[in-house]
Amino acid sequence: MLTSLEGDMAPDGVSPMRIKEILTTKIGLEQEILNAAGAASLSELGVDSIGVIEFQKVVSDEYGIDLPDEISAMNLTQIINYVTETMRSDC
Length: 91
Known about the structure:
Elements: H1 16-25, H2 31-35, H3 49-63, H4 76-90
């Protein structure tokens, strides 16, 4: 595992707290739901297809990477790891 869901930054500057912030402020998930998410995927957390598209756009704008279409089946740790690994491989 590359990072935890705590406030630590992953080595390449991907903040788990920023990913959570995007999901709460841009997608509308409640902080309590994210805190208790565990291994739940975005779709299991109630993020619909429009929310997924918006999340993909914000991550693309902020980090310069495209998230895969399968992002709705990924949990928060997987998303953070994907962003971190993609940013690393683009360097």
